């Protein structure tokens, strides 16, 4: 039996939701991870330090006592965000990042940024404190082709922010294109990117060919196969500017299997087994630990985790399918092939 012991992973991009859905998904999302950077796109969003403190409390209450898990909080940047409040939230260690959603780019992004000239004060605070700006890097203009949205954002607003704030740490979230990989490499001193497990597996055919598969739909949408291959190469490259952020984004099944299905893939339970198989196939199992438990914390200026997890190779098995309570059913990501690794718990 093949076994790998690695430092306990961090997920640097996670959606935990709120209310009953939070109670359902949090224990599952926390199971294989020591910490996660929790996205603030609730409705209404987490915009102030007080919002983040309250949300952190609700997250901790949704976790069973034995589970040691640290939610790393973020604030949702709006046109009206108070830079002083952001500064206090950083000083008091309440938040670890601020998230920029271009207005309308994705789920609950309608309160996002419409005017990039108005966010300078917040970006200066982040820059001074060494706190990253996490960016949903897609141009939300409905006239922009959905497959071009990432590239248009990178060459437009992202480059302007990069030029105006050379010391700002920027994380380009859930990258999906060759162009994004190249951009991050070219600006690597202060720029990094998260890569999801599902973008390492899916190309756009997996969403659209032979029938629409709503559970493979997320934003940014998966691109051509050549982009997937570039992402895979970046993930196993050992380059410190690429690290795991799952973007695990649970939605009720009924909201996904709809005439207007929403974006988001719930990957938390399968991420670690899936990544172990992908890294093994790429001959890079020895680089898995840095990707999931090294480069991210380094970029965020956090200590690496002290605990470990043990992964072992098993016979092929099917992913769990779904999680549910009396009200909610959430479909778990199916990579389209059996898993062959398991996390020992
Ligand atoms: O697919 C996505 N789902 N992409 C996002 O950016 C947001 C997320 C969500 O919150 O559902
Ligand atoms: Zn996300």
Strand order of the largest sheet: 2-3-4-5-6-7-8-9
Mean pLDDT: 97
Give the overall shape.
globular
C-alpha end-to-end distance: 17 Å
| Biggest sheet record | 8 strands, parallel
Would you count the extended β strands for me? 13
Helix content: 25-40%
Helices and strands: which structural class? alpha/beta
Low-confidence spans: pLDDT under 50, at least 5 residues?
Answer: none
Radius of gyration: 19 Å
> What oligomeric state do these chains adopt?
single chain
Question: Would you write up a description of this structure?
Answer:
The protein has 345 residues and is of the alpha/beta class. The protein is 33% helix and 18% strand. It is built from 12 helices and 13 strands. Strand 11 (322-324) and strand 12 form a beta hairpin. Helix 3 runs parallel beside helix 4. The longest helix is centred in the middle third of the chain and has 16 residues, at 149-164. It is globular, with a radius of gyration of 19 Å. The structure holds (4S)-2,6-dioxohexahydropyrimidine-4-carboxylic acid (DOR) and zinc ion (ZN). Residues 15, 41, 106-107, 136, 218-219, 249, 263-264 line the site of (4S)-2,6-dioxohexahydropyrimidine-4-carboxylic acid.
Summarize the helices and strands and which ones pair or pack:
Elements: E1 3-7, E2 10-14, H1 19-30, E3 35-38, H2 49-61, E4 70-76, H3 83-91, E5 95-100, H4 120-129, E6 133-135, H5 149-164, E7 170-172, H6 178-186, E8 191-195, H7 205-208, H8 225-235, E9 242-244, H9 253-256, H10 268-281, H11 288-293, H12 295-300, E10 308-317, E11 322-324, E12 329-331, E13 339-344
Helix pairs in contact: 3-4
The structure holds (4S)-2,6-dioxohexahydropyrimidine-4-carboxylic acid and zinc ion (ZN).
């Amino acid at each position: 039996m093949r076994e790998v012991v690695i430092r306990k992973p961090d997920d640097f991009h996670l959606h935990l939701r709120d209310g009953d859905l939070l109670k359902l998904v949090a224990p599952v999302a926390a199971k294989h991870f020591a910490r996660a950077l929790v996205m603030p796109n609730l409705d209404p969003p987490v915009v102030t330090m007080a919002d983040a403190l309250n949300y952190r409390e609700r997250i901790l209450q949704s976790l069973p006592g034995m589970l040691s898990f640290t939610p790393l909080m973020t604030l949702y940047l709006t046109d009206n965000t108070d830079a002083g409040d952001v500064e206090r939230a950083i000083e008091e260690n309440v938040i670890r990042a601020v998230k920029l959603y271009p207005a309308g780019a994705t789920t609950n992004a309608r309160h996002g940024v419409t005017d990039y000239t108005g966010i300078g004060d917040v970006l200066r605070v982040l820059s001074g404190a060494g706190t990253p700006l996490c960016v949903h890097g897609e141009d939300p203009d409905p006239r922009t082709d959905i497959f071009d949205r990432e590239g248009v954002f990178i060459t437009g607003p992202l480059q302007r922010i990069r030029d105006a704030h050379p010391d700002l740490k920027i994380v380009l979230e859930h990258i999906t294109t060759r162009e994004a990989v190249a951009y991050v490499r070219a600006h690597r001193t202060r720029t990094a990117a998260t890569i999801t497990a599902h973008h390492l597996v899916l190309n756009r055919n997996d969403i659209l060919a032979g029938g629409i598969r709503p559970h493979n739909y997320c934003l940014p949408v998966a691109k051509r196969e050549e982009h997937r291959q570039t992402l895979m190469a970046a993930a196993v490259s050992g380059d410190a500017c690429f690290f795991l952020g799952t973007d695990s984004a649970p939605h009720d099944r009924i909201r996904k299997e709809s005439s207007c299905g929403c974006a988001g893939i719930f990957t938390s339970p399968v991420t670690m087994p899936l990544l172990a198989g992908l890294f093994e196939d790429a001959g890079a199992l020895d680089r898995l630990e840095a990707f999931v438990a090294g480069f991210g914390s380094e970029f965020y200026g956090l200590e690496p985790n002290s605990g470990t997890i043990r992964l072992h190779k098993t016979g092929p098995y099917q992913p769990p399918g779904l999680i549910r309570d009396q009200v909610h059913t959430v479909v778990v990501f199916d990579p389209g092939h059996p898993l062959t690794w398991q996390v020992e718990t």
